[in-house]
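During the second year of the project, the team shifted from modelling isolated chains to modelling whole assemblies. The rationale, set out in the original proposal, was that interfaces cannot be judged from single-chain predictions alone. As a representative example for this report, we include one of the complexes processed in the last quarter. Its constituent sequences, exactly as entered into the pipeline, are reproduced here:
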Amino acid sequence: MGLVREVILGSWSLITGMGVTIRRYGRRAITTQYPRKRLEMSPGYRGHIELVRFEELGSHNCVACGTCVRFCPTHVIKVQGEKPRARAPKRATLYFIDFSHCSLCGLCVANCPTRTLKFSTEYEMAHACRWEGVVDLMQRLEESA
Amino acid sequence: MWQTAVDILGPDLAAIVAGAIGLVALVQVNTLFLVWLERKVSAHIQLRLGPMEVGPHGILQTLVDGVKLLGKELITPRHVDRKLYVLAPVVVFTGVLACLVVVPFDEELQLRDLNVGVLLIFAFSAFNVLAILMGGWSANNKYSLLGAIRSVAQNVAYEIPLLLVVLNVLLWTNSMQMSTIVAAQSTLWNVFWMPVAAVIYLICATAETNRAPFDIPEAESELVAGFHTEYSGMRFAMFFLAEYSNMFIVTAVATTLFFGGWKSPPLLGFLPVPGVVWFFLKVYALIFVIIWVRWTFPRLRFDQLMNFSWKVMIPVSLIHLIVYAGIIKIIR
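Output from the structure prediction step:
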């Protein structure tokens, strides 16, 4: 009798399983046809870092203090700044990161005193050469304007 | 053109040549379609879209893949048993073509209406096992050999209940001729009064065609690709063609034996649809079920597979045969 019971219960579970798959067969696909359509990245997505454009300044607010450079565990950030005139506050003129070594820890974003760093939503980061992982954030900021 | 062919070859030979060409074309087109169907059904079950790029909804994807396979090099590994290795893909295809000879697509559309049609199909489907054993044995690869051994063990185990349930139908119609079996179902399909036999047949047919959940001969996670691991290019494509054509054959036989062949479904007889359309509709509906099963259930372990055959399927089909033989004896 044990065998008969096992066969009946087993058959029922098989039918239940087939019901599950046929219901999913009728549902809409959740994937996106990638090169044709693109997904909107969620706000929590971490691409490489990017300079924030402040409306009141019309530009970034990086003062080239070097906090991010010192915090970065893999030393991928390079910032240079200059004073536009004597006694004026310092402004960053160059900002490079080598994304191929970045671990996306976010210490630079969390510690930026002027909050001018954020994570971008860039996800197409495959390159043919290691040097193409170097991102010029100033150029990106200009291009995004 | 037909007249020229008849003039040159004579009517009999011309019919055979035309039929052979037709069957080879059917095998190719059916495989192209089934691979696409399999990928689409699996994709939709997994909430994906599947092939979408080549042709509308990717319908030409398998054609392109076939062209790619045609262009691939035929790699022969060192230390293979060369004769058997080359012969196996041919043998696997021969059995497929021979089986299709007696399949009744319509009342008039059948290459040869032999009076031993069912027997011929089951005899020639054994070629499939032989070819798998040849391919697996000759390839000088442990995965191929294991796949072939498993395949033979599985096919021997599942051929018994398969033939036992087919015997029910043969007892009822008293004939092995495919057209007679279809004609005997003009009032009532066999599936309606022997449903258990139909279910057992479909389960065994799934096992016979080495499809999931009985696909241990080519279990990807254990045996790479099983018996055809070492094959490439068109030789691999031949195994692939045979695999999907075997699916077509077992479902075509199921349609003929249990689902009324080319006859219309019970209440739809008034529709002006030719029998061949009904036949293909039924076959592809059954194939859809087999694909659906594949993408629902996980693979069985080898001992589970054997236990299921010897401890469940064979006793059940034997009891079924005895009971139905008694019923048929009383009715007649």
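Residues 1-30 of chain A form one domain. Strands of chain A lie at 49-51, 77-82, 91-98, 117-119, 134-136.
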